[in-house]
Design brief:
Helix 1 packs antiparallel against helix 2. The protein is an alpha+beta fold. It is elongated and about 75 Å long. It has 3 helices and 7 strands.
Protein backbone atom coordinates (compact mmCIF):
# COMPACT_ATOMS: atom_id res chain seq x y z
CA UNK A 1 0.00 0.00 0.00
CA UNK A 2 1.48 3.36 -0.94
CA UNK A 3 2.23 6.00 1.61
CA UNK A 4 -0.75 8.37 1.41
CA UNK A 5 0.28 11.97 1.60
CA UNK A 6 -0.78 13.73 4.81
CA UNK A 7 -0.16 17.26 5.94
CA UNK A 8 2.00 16.30 8.90
CA UNK A 9 5.20 17.89 10.13
CA UNK A 10 8.44 16.48 8.72
CA UNK A 11 9.32 13.13 10.19
CA UNK A 12 12.80 11.67 10.36
CA UNK A 13 11.08 8.25 10.17
CA UNK A 14 9.28 8.64 6.84
CA UNK A 15 8.16 5.50 4.99
CA UNK A 16 10.85 3.66 3.03
CA UNK A 17 9.33 4.91 -0.21
CA UNK A 18 6.37 6.91 -1.46
CA UNK A 19 4.50 5.88 -4.58
CA UNK A 20 2.59 8.49 -6.51
CA UNK A 21 -0.26 7.55 -8.83
CA UNK A 22 -2.71 9.17 -11.23
CA UNK A 23 -5.48 10.83 -9.21
CA UNK A 24 -8.79 9.00 -9.49
CA UNK A 25 -10.83 11.82 -7.87
CA UNK A 26 -9.62 14.16 -10.63
CA UNK A 27 -10.73 11.57 -13.18
CA UNK A 28 -14.13 11.35 -11.53
CA UNK A 29 -14.55 15.12 -11.77
CA UNK A 30 -13.65 15.05 -15.48
CA UNK A 31 -16.15 12.24 -16.07
CA UNK A 32 -18.90 14.28 -14.40
CA UNK A 33 -18.13 17.25 -16.63
CA UNK A 34 -18.10 15.07 -19.73
CA UNK A 35 -21.37 13.43 -18.68
CA UNK A 36 -22.90 16.91 -18.53
CA UNK A 37 -21.58 17.54 -22.05
CA UNK A 38 -23.14 14.30 -23.27
CA UNK A 39 -26.41 15.27 -21.57
CA UNK A 40 -26.33 18.63 -23.32
CA UNK A 41 -25.82 16.86 -26.65
CA UNK A 42 -28.75 14.54 -25.96
CA UNK A 43 -30.98 17.48 -25.01
CA UNK A 44 -30.05 19.28 -28.25
CA UNK A 45 -30.81 16.15 -30.27
CA UNK A 46 -34.17 15.77 -28.48
CA UNK A 47 -35.10 19.41 -29.23
CA UNK A 48 -34.07 19.29 -32.88
CA UNK A 49 -32.92 15.94 -34.37
CA UNK A 50 -31.71 17.74 -37.51
CA UNK A 51 -29.25 19.94 -35.56
CA UNK A 52 -25.85 18.32 -36.03
CA UNK A 53 -24.27 20.24 -33.10
CA UNK A 54 -26.03 17.97 -30.60
CA UNK A 55 -24.49 14.92 -32.25
CA UNK A 56 -21.05 16.54 -32.13
CA UNK A 57 -21.41 17.23 -28.38
CA UNK A 58 -22.63 13.70 -27.72
CA UNK A 59 -19.97 11.97 -29.81
CA UNK A 60 -17.15 14.19 -28.53
CA UNK A 61 -18.19 13.65 -24.92
CA UNK A 62 -18.42 9.89 -25.32
CA UNK A 63 -14.99 9.67 -26.99
CA UNK A 64 -13.47 11.86 -24.28
CA UNK A 65 -15.16 9.77 -21.56
CA UNK A 66 -13.56 6.63 -22.99
CA UNK A 67 -10.14 8.32 -22.97
CA UNK A 68 -10.55 9.66 -19.43
CA UNK A 69 -11.74 6.28 -18.18
CA UNK A 70 -8.79 4.41 -19.66
CA UNK A 71 -6.27 7.03 -18.42
CA UNK A 72 -7.56 7.57 -14.89
CA UNK A 73 -9.23 4.24 -14.15
CA UNK A 74 -7.15 1.77 -16.16
CA UNK A 75 -4.45 -0.37 -14.57
CA UNK A 76 -2.90 1.49 -11.66
CA UNK A 77 0.59 2.42 -12.85
CA UNK A 78 3.02 4.16 -10.52
CA UNK A 79 3.97 7.59 -11.85
CA UNK A 80 6.82 8.22 -9.44
CA UNK A 81 8.54 6.39 -6.61
CA UNK A 82 10.66 8.47 -4.25
CA UNK A 83 12.83 6.91 -1.56
CA UNK A 84 16.02 7.69 0.32
CA UNK A 85 17.84 5.65 -2.35
CA UNK A 86 16.59 7.76 -5.27
CA UNK A 87 13.80 8.39 -7.76
CA UNK A 88 12.08 6.04 -10.19
CA UNK A 89 9.87 7.58 -12.90
CA UNK A 90 6.81 6.13 -14.66
CA UNK A 91 9.01 4.39 -17.22
CA UNK A 92 10.75 2.42 -14.46
CA UNK A 93 13.94 4.46 -14.89
CA UNK A 94 15.69 4.62 -11.50
CA UNK A 95 18.32 7.17 -10.54
CA UNK A 96 20.19 7.22 -7.24
CA UNK A 97 20.43 10.47 -5.29
CA UNK A 98 24.19 10.27 -5.90
CA UNK A 99 23.53 10.63 -9.66
CA UNK A 100 20.83 13.29 -9.32
CA UNK A 101 22.16 16.83 -9.71
CA UNK A 102 18.87 18.55 -8.90
CA UNK A 103 15.21 17.66 -8.31
CA UNK A 104 12.53 20.30 -8.25
CA UNK A 105 8.92 21.18 -8.84
CA UNK A 106 8.56 23.93 -11.41
CA UNK A 107 5.66 26.38 -11.31
CA UNK A 108 5.16 27.72 -14.85
CA UNK A 109 2.81 30.71 -14.90
CA UNK A 110 0.69 31.06 -18.03
CA UNK A 111 -1.89 33.79 -18.63
CA UNK A 112 -4.53 32.71 -16.06
CA UNK A 113 -3.19 29.35 -14.94
CA UNK A 114 -0.09 27.79 -13.46
CA UNK A 115 1.26 24.50 -14.78
CA UNK A 116 3.32 22.29 -12.50
CA UNK A 117 6.19 20.10 -13.65
CA UNK A 118 8.50 17.72 -11.86
CA UNK A 119 12.04 17.82 -13.19
CA UNK A 120 15.32 16.30 -12.16
CA UNK A 121 18.77 16.26 -13.67
CA UNK A 122 21.09 13.27 -13.50
CA UNK A 123 24.56 12.34 -14.63
CA UNK A 124 24.80 9.85 -17.48
CA UNK A 125 27.85 9.30 -19.61
CA UNK A 126 29.59 12.35 -18.18
CA UNK A 127 26.71 14.64 -19.19
CA UNK A 128 23.81 16.05 -17.23
CA UNK A 129 20.52 14.82 -18.65
CA UNK A 130 17.08 15.77 -17.46
CA UNK A 131 13.69 14.19 -16.96
CA UNK A 132 10.63 16.45 -16.92
CA UNK A 133 6.94 15.60 -16.63
CA UNK A 134 3.69 17.44 -15.96
CA UNK A 135 2.14 16.56 -12.58
CA UNK A 136 -1.40 18.00 -12.61
CA UNK A 137 -2.99 14.55 -12.88
CA UNK A 138 -1.06 13.05 -9.96
CA UNK A 139 -2.52 12.38 -6.52
CA UNK A 140 -0.11 14.81 -4.85
CA UNK A 141 0.06 18.58 -4.73
CA UNK A 142 3.18 20.42 -5.96
CA UNK A 143 3.87 21.61 -2.41
CA UNK A 144 3.64 18.07 -1.02
CA UNK A 145 5.95 16.79 -3.75
CA UNK A 146 8.53 19.49 -2.94
CA UNK A 147 8.39 18.47 0.72
CA UNK A 148 8.83 14.78 -0.14
CA UNK A 149 11.82 15.51 -2.35
CA UNK A 150 13.46 17.53 0.39
CA UNK A 151 12.74 14.90 3.09
CA UNK A 152 14.03 11.94 1.09
CA UNK A 153 17.12 13.75 -0.13
CA UNK A 154 17.88 14.72 3.48
CA UNK A 155 17.46 11.08 4.51
CA UNK A 156 19.90 10.06 1.78
CA UNK A 157 22.42 12.68 2.89
CA UNK A 158 22.03 11.61 6.53
CA UNK A 159 22.52 7.93 5.69
CA UNK A 160 25.66 8.81 3.67
CA UNK A 161 27.00 10.83 6.58
CA UNK A 162 26.20 8.04 9.06
CA UNK A 163 27.66 5.37 6.78
CA UNK A 164 24.40 3.42 6.26
Amino acid sequence: MPNRIRSTPPSPHREEETKIYISRPKGTLLLLILTAGAGFGISQIAKNPNFWGGYVYLLGSVVAMIGVTSYYFGPRKTQLVISKQGIQNEDGFFRSWSDITYAQVQWVKKSNTTDHYFEYGYMMGGKVRKFRTEISTWDISPTQLEKLLKDYEQQYQSSRFMGN
